[in-house]
Design goal:
Layout: H1 8-33, H2 39-61, H3 66-95, H4 107-113, H5 116-125, E1 136-137, E2 140-141, H6 142-162
Antiparallel strand pairs: 1-2
Helix pairs in contact: 1-2, 1-6, 2-3, 2-6, 3-6
């Protein structure tokens, strides 16, 4: 049961399952525990969904040639890299919260009142609610765990996509 010896298909499908399980946990924590996601949390969910779809398609397709596997590995790495950037920004905001207490407008209100580029800029600059740590496990906040998982899944995508055919 050494994952390093798993086939390309098994690695990619396992990565997709992890992505969808993490999204499920985030939704569960929101509905059962009342942890409201901030805009950066929503973008992390979107990044996990995009990465999960890439890994799922790669696992179902499972090309026999190295070029196709490399392409899927690089595409998975790119999706994970976007997630790393978002989660890294979120962790940075939690470690260096803004000097004010007020939270920004709710994400649903911003989506209705702003055009897309302005909304993305507003969300990525963060607000007071993004700096709040509501949940921890083993000393890491949820965005920190997201960052760990994005790094692990980026490594998995590269490993599966760039290794010799199995």
């Amino acid at each position: 049961m050494n994952p390093a010896r798993w086939s390309f298909r098994s690695l990619m499908l396992a990565g997709a399952v992890v992505c969808f399980a993490l999204i499920g946990f985030a939704i569960y924590s929101q509905l059962a525990w009342g942890l409201e996601p901030c805009p950066l949390c929503i973008f992390q969910r979107i990044a996990f969904a995009a990465l999960g779809v890439v890994l799922l398609v790669a696992g179902v397709h499972a090309p026999r040639r190295g070029g196709g596997r490399t392409a899927y590995g690089l595409l998975g790495f790119a999706a994970a890299a976007v997630g790393i950037g978002i989660a890294g920004r979120h962790v940075w905001l939690q470690m260096n919260p803004p000097g004010f207490v007020a939270c920004g407008a709710p994400f649903s209100f911003m989506r209705q009142t702003m055009d897309t580029p302005t909304l993305i800029q507003k969300v990525l600059t963060g607000s007071g609610d993004c700096g709040t740590v509501d949940w921890t496990f083993l000393g890491l906040s949820m965005p920190a765990w997201s960052l760990v998982w994005f790094v692990l899944l980026a490594g998995l995508a590269l490993f599966a996509g760039l290794r010799a055919r199995r």
